[in-house]
Amino acid sequence: MIWNEKMECMSREDMKNCQSDRLKKLVQYVYERSPFYKNKLDQLGVSPRDIKSIEDIVKLPFTHKDDLRDNYPFGAFSKPVGQIAEIHISSGTTGNPTVVGYSKSDVELWSEVMSRSLCCAGAVPGDMIQVAYGYGLFTGGLGAHYGALNMGVTIIPCSSGQTKRQLKIMQDFKPRILACTPSYSLYMAEEAKELGMDPRDSSWKIGVFGAEPWSENMRQEIEKVWNMSATDIYGLSEIIGPGVAQECHLKRGLHLYSDVFYPEIINEQTNQPAKPGESGVLAVTTLTKEGMPLLRYRTRDIVSLSFEKCACGRTSPRISKIQGRTDDMIIVRGINVFPSQIEHVLLEIEETQPHYQLIVDRKPGGMDELEILVELKEEYFSDEVKKLQAIEHKIQKEIAATLSVEPKVHLVEPKTIARSEGKAKRVIDKRNL
Length: 433
Ligand code: DLL
Hints:
CATH architecture of the largest domain: 3-Layer(aba) Sandwich
Bound molecules: 5'-O-[hydroxy(phenylacetyl)phosphoryl]adenosine
Shape: globular
Number of helices: 11
CATH class of the largest domain: Alpha Beta
Largest sheet: 9 strands, mixed
Strand order of the largest sheet: 4-3-5-6-7-8-9-14-13
Mean pLDDT: 94
Low-confidence stretches: none
Oligomer: single chain
Number of strands: 21
Structural class: alpha/beta
């Protein structure tokens, strides 16, 4: 089933006309309502009158994550806060997080694109979905929730965690759809086996997995262990949350809803549009959002784009699976972590030095583990294990409070972490993503 056949199967020409109309209105809208964009456009000498079709998008400025952080908390909104219906945040590199404001109609748009996504994954009205993405400031839980509500799919809003309870609910309620991070699905399989269950007997037949990178190998593992079809969903808080793009049952790229999220692939070196088919950074323009519309937002995710019509009938462009990022952000259990956030915490701790290394690994069960090696200052070095453990514990708690990820912390002797003459190799990612 295709949720919105008109928009998802539109001819390329009609789509271009639709995008052109929407872009013209959008630029006028932000110029009038957002001092942030008015400034940016004035600085470039671009007026809304210069935008006549979607091709003119290249005249517009890019928007970067730093722009949003510099305008913390509400400076990038195009509506007064009183007209914002919902707020989410995602982590930034250091300091302020990125704040995203949704108007009521943005929440309706989110519901629409998430209904498209769930349908694309194979859900139909009357289905039941177990939402095991976190609810709260993270967009995963509520995004899946709104999409299911909008299309008449029964929701079990479990949020993430409490794995035994998740498994019992699955066994007793028999939902056909599971939405969570791919790594959490593998962790649940491990737990299920430990409890003497055979995951292959589960009621879950379709998985809607995203929020973190995962490989084809991991897909195969999940499909085998749960006896389900595992599909990939992509999105980011700044644009809407989950629901920017989603795989259909054919799993040959993620269908991107380009009537509302206009994609461009940018060559990172030249800052110019990449050649057709070439990989580059995905930049997205939100064509119809009201609360915090964005022009050419640089996601930092590296993908390629294909315009070939898919055998499922959708004509929407498809992005490849995410191939990497242009920054050093790592995603641990679905949570975005910037090494600089950890550095910030370590620098506030008296006993340690700013020499550290982060090691990310995936345990056999599928859960990611973050380990931090950090050098102790000479004067705090001690033979007493208890003293050292107390410091490790303190660091662990501080980092957990800032990042919502609880790392393992190991203090190491001064001058044992390799020094670098160039970029320090802060992160060792042992996961085969
Ligand atoms: O992770 C939104 C989301 C929730 C997507 C649930 C899918 C499912 P943020 O926390 O803002 O939003 O993180 C966005 O996560 O820029 C990517 O680097 C990464 N990411 C999201 N989906 C995928 C995916 C949500 N399917 C950042 N594959 C993005 C790889 C992904 N990376």
